Amino acid sequence: MAYHIPVLLHESIEGLDIKPNGIYVDLTFGGGGHSSEILKHLNKGKLFAFDQDEEALKNTIDDKRFTLIRSNFRFFRNFLRYHNVKEVDGILADLGVSSHHFDSPERGFSFRFEGPLDMRMNQNQRLSAKQVVNTYSPEDLTNVLTQYGELQGARRLANAICKSREEEQIETVEQLAELLKPMFPSNAQNKMLAQVFQAIRIEVNQEMEVLKQMLTNATKALKKDGRLVVIAYHSLEDRLVKNYFRSGNFEGDLDKDFYGNVSSPYEQINRKVIVPSDEENKINSRARSAKLRIGRKV
Asked: What domains are there in the chain, each with its CATH number?
């Protein structure tokens, strides 16, 4: 089984508008699919890739133009400076959780398997799904499920979790899934469980805050006319990226000058979001929710 099938590969490489001697960054290395393709377009250029998951290091590419750094991409500018790189020509971020994570029961990302409640992208960090589920207050759990899972009845779910953990700690994926299943309509159980697991995963890995920091840092790291290519997989991520490209802030508030021109650090290359083709969706079902946006720094 492939570690991860790269999503929207052709479209994202095209969006980077690669210069053969340019410097590029792949913020989410994973199985190396996007990085391998970027290297094919480089001559004397360089590619820096980041991944916080130790498992990804096994996929490193033996190429003198390539450097793989184990770190959360929120810190990528610090590492670029360490390598004496101040500006880059393009940055790619595929925000999806890799197939490898979802298909590894011991990582606890999917309710399809029995496994520990973990969900940490970086296994060295302290906060895990088990801690979120067993230590967060009812109010904090409600906020997580509402904000990141966009779930109706989040308070009822949070109260059920808190009541159950009083009798016995919730330690496994199966325990959490079995607790919540009766609270969902039978025809929507999988969809709503997926929303619960998404919400907890986002909280564990602080994905929204990391994304905001990445977008801000990418703007500082890109040269004029440099490209930022982002593939998002749920509405929360995509909304942040869309707002930032459009307005330069995360709320989407348009700041206009005296002449009515919108002030933004980016020109949107694709006004309409790019989504996978029917053919790609058939080959890779996990591509279905992908949305790609491309910005050119002005």
From this structure: 9-99+207-297 (3.40.50.150), 113-205 (1.10.150.170)
Distance CA 127, CA 205 (A): 8
Q: How many residues does the chain have?
A: 298
Whole-number pLDDT of residue 3: 53
Q: Mean pLDDT in the chain?
A: 93
Distance CA(176)–CA(172), nearest Å, equals: 7
Both tokens of residue 242?
A: 């869309």
Rounded to two decimals, the pTM is 0.90
- Sheet strand arrangement including 222-232: 66-69, 46-50, 23-26, 88-94, 222-232, 291-297, 266-268
Higher pLDDT, residue 254 or 239: 239
List alpha helices for the chain, DSSP H.
Answer: 9-16, 33-40, 76-82, 99-102, 129-135, 138-149, 154-167, 173-180, 189-205, 207-221, 235-247, 278-283
